[in-house]
Write a structure and sequence with these properties.
With 300 residues, this protein is mainly beta. The protein has one domain. The chain is built from one helix and nine strands, in the order αβββββββββ. Strands 1-3-4-5-6-7-8-9 form an eight-stranded antiparallel β-barrel. The C terminus is likely disordered.
Length: 300
């Protein structure tokens, strides 16, 4: 009897405990905090940076239109004595270049990036060449002409469009083509020495000089590769090739013979082209590394 009463008491206690537990407030574990996915990589945004590289190419110069102007009286000669000469010489133009750039990209799709970039460079790209010829005319006989020319590009810059392609599997690597307007400070000097015989008066020597120092304009085109390390999305590294053509310029040369006094004046025209290749490495800082205004490039 006592044993039955004890079992009944235990059962009652268990039922009461379950009822009390059911009435207690529920305590559940809090839901996990929401962690947004990382933003999709985008090239959209403003950037600026610096670069350094090397320029190289062939600098050609051609001197034509050689002739002498005379008074036609004291000498009894025609007003212009043509020599019919054309002296052409060339040399390599090369040197270091470096500067800065600023630009803007917009990524239209996961694979297409379009942008614009402007840059300005200091340069020590130059060449020196020398040439000469022995030419003649019916009045003075043989002329021995030596031409020395120096060609300098002190600075240059470009304003270019860029069209880049990326791959979904490599969104931070862009291969691009580029082209546009180019300009630069071109400096040229030409010195000409002409020696010829003037009969009983002996040998005359005429020195003619010409200088050109101005801004030349033209075009440029090329391409490059730009890469952003995912650990540092605000930075990118690039390697770029450009071919730049700043056109050709004409330089007038004149010099007067001192034997005899008031002797004939040497005239000629020197023409030189400024065309060169450049290979540059650069680094850019992106002010908006993930392009908040860019289109959605991925879905999660």
């Amino acid at each position: 009897m006592a044993k039955s009463a004890l079992l009944a008491g235990v059962a009652l206690a268990l039922v009461a405990g379950s009822a009390i537990a059911a009435d207690l407030p529920s305590r559940k574990a809090p839901p996990p905090a929401f962690v947004p996915p990382p933003p999709a990589f985008s090239w959209t945004g403003l950037y600026g940076g610096v670069n350094i590289g090397y320029g190289f190419g062939a600098s050609g110069t051609s001197s034509t239109g050689w002739g002498y102007l005379s008074d036609g009286g004291a000498w009894g000669l025609p007003g212009v004595i043509p020599t019919g000469a054309a002296i052409t010489n060339s040399s390599n133009i090369n040197g270091v270049t470096g500067g800065g750039q600023i630009g803007y990209n917009y990524q239209f799709s996961p694979w297409l990036v379009v942008g614009v970039e402007a840059d300005i460079q200091a340069a020590d790209i130059n060449s020196r060449n020398a040439g000469g010829a022995a030419i003649g005319d019916p009045f003075f006989g043989t002329h021995t002409i030596a031409v020395n020319a120096a060609h300098y590009l002190d600075w240059w810059g470009t304003v270019r469009g860029r069209v880049g392609v990326t791959l979904p599997s490599w969104p931070n690597l862009m291969v691009y083509g580029t082209g546009g307007f180019a300009y630069g400070g071109v400096n040229r000097t030409v010195s000409v020495v002409d020696s010829f015989n003037v009969g009983a008066l002996g040998t005359a020597s005429v020195v003619g000089n010409g200088v050109y120092d101005n801004t030349s304009t033209g075009w440029t085109a090329g391409g490059g590769v730009e890469w952003t390390p995912m650990a540092f999305p605000a930075w990118s590294l690039k390697v770029e090739y450009l071919y730049t053509d700043l056109g050709s310029t004409n330089l007038n040369i004149a010099g007067i013979s001192t034997i005899p006094a008031n002797g004939p004046v040497l005239v000629a025209q020197n023409r030189v082209s400024t065309r060169f290749n450049s290979v540059r490495a650069g680094v850019n800082w992106h002010f908006n590394p993930f392009g908040s205004s860019a289109p959605v490039l991925a879905k999660y």
